[in-house]
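Risk register update: the risk of archive-format incompatibility is retired. Evidence:
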Amino acid sequence: MGYKNFGEAIMNGKIPRRKRLKKLGTVKINTVETTPVLWNGKLLRFEWVRNSHWGAAGGVDRAVGCYQFVDMENEETVCTFAMDHSFGCCYAENGKMYVIGVRGEGGGSTLDLFVSSDLQSWECSTVLTFPEGISLFNTSICKGDGKYVMAIEIGGSHEAVGAPFTCVFAQSADLTHWTMLDMMEYSYSRRRYTACPCIRYVDGFYYMIYLEGAPCHRWLPYIVRSRDLKEFELGLTNPIMWPDDDDKKVIRPERFTEEELSYIENAVNCNNSDFDLCDHGGKTLITYSWGNQYGKEFLALAEYDGSSEEFLKSFFE
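Archived output:
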C-alpha cells in the first residue's frame, strides 16, 4: 500500500485494538540520540555525549562531543571513546560492537566507523564521505535481506534533501564497507520533515520509525515500511506516541537533585523523538527523548509487552 490508496485503507480498513506502549519515565537530562543494545548478557545504552553547543549534560563546559556506553542496570559508564563525534548509532554482532557516527559536532559530511570486541580498544575507519551541500545527523543500522542497511538523516542544500530533513540509505555486506544507494531514488521523504530514523527488518519489510514535523511546534514519531526502500507504506495507527505528562515521570528520583527534578517537572514538552528499541526479557525496550526541541531535552524509557517484531507489525495489521 502506497500513498495513493492510503485514504481508501483508512476508510475501509479494519484495525483491531492493539497493545499500547507503556511510558516508564525519565532517566537522564540533556541526553538524546541513544541506542539500547544487548552485549554479553548485559543491557547497555549507547549515547552521544553532547558538547556545550548542543547542551552538555550536567552543565559541563565540554568543547567536543564523544560516545559512551552506559550499563542500564546501574547507569554507570562502561567506556568513553570517539572524541569529536556526534549523532551515532551502534550494532552488535558476533562478539563485535560496531558504532557509526558523524565526525565533528553534527552537520558534517563524514561518517566514521568504530569497531571493538571489548568496548575498550577501538579501531576507527572512514566509511562514507558525502558531497558538498549535505549535512549528516542521525543514523540507524539493521540486518536486512542478505545485507546490512543503514538509514541516514541528511539536511543541507543538496537536491536529495528536499524539505529538511530526509532519510537516505546505504548498504553493506560486512558492516565495514558501505555503499550509498542512489539518494534521489532511495529516500524518505523529500516532501516533508522526516528525521531521526530507526530501521529494522522483519519478514521481507524494512520498518522505519522516524520523526514527523507537525503543526504548532510538535514533533511525533511515525512508522513506515518498505520492501525496496523506494516505495513506503504508512502505518494506519500513527503516530506511535504523543508528548504527555507520563514523559515527566522520573524512574529513579534519588539520582536527581531537587533543582533537576523541578527542571523536569516544569519543562515544556512538545516532542517525542529519537525513538530506538531492542528486545529484552520478552518485551520491547524503547529509548526516546522528550522536551522542547530547542535544547531542553530529556531521555526516557518505554516498553511494549511483546517482541519488537510483534510491535512493528502491529501498526500495519
